[in-house]
Design goal:
It is built from nine helices and no strands. The protein starts with a helix and ends in a 5-residue tail after the last helix. With 179 residues, the protein is mostly helical. The protein has a single domain, classed as Tetracycline Repressor, domain 2 (Orthogonal Bundle). Keywords: DNA-binding, Repressor, Transcription, Transcription regulation.
Length: 179
């Protein structure tokens, strides 16, 4: 997976080849094809692995409202260090909107899992009086995903754009803090 991630990040999806990835991994092209039927399938697995690593780290780190903004800021900065992977993620998510796409099921499950987790946490915050009045947890969770994806897409178009400040302002709009 490391070989594929490096190749996609360095060369971009279109220029990365399964032969190059196999060579980097120290296996044959046929050996790679035994595990992954296509470059799309391999990319989906690379992104799923990255997503899983971030998910596990995020669940461990974000145990309070105060920890949320710093964690998300760190996550976006990390994504900015690998813009090609950020681009690939967004492109694959869009392509996977087609039901016949190999990564369709993964993205449906990934967004649902994320939305469920965020909604659950927002329900807890709502019970504590920390979710803005009139904004339900379900809607806030959907907005949350849209803002993260949208900020990253805008940053890919304009690398000078500050996406951390708008993220923090969005959190200010939906959450009530003690200060």
């Amino acid at each position: 997976m490391r070989a594929a991630r490096d190749s996609f990040a360095e060369r971009g999806y279109a220029r990365a080849s399964l032969r190059d990835i196999a060579e980097r991994a120290g296996i044959t092209h046929a050996g790679l094809l035994h595990h992954f039927r296509s470059k799309d399938e391999l990319l989906a697995e690379v992104l799923a692995q990255r997503d899983t690593e971030e998910w596990e780290e995020g669940v461990a780190e974000v145990d309070s409202l105060e920890a949320l903004a710093p964690y998300l800021g760190t996550l976006l900065v990390r994504h900015q260090k690998t813009p090609e992977l950020m681009r690939l993620w967004l492109e694959l998510a869009a392509a996977a909107s087609r039901p016949d796409h190999p990564a369709h099921g993964y993205f449906v499950e990934r967004y649902e899992r994320s939305r469920t987790h965020v909604t659950r946490r927002l329900r807890e915050l709502e019970a504590e009086g920390k979710l803005r009045e009139g904004l339900g947890p379900d809607s806030a969770a959907t907005l949350f995903q849209a803002v993260l994806n949208g900020l990253q897409a805008q940053w890919l178009l304009n690398r000078r754009l500050d996406i951390i400040e708008p993220l923090n302002r969005f959190l200010d709009l939906i959450l009530v803090t003690d200060d």
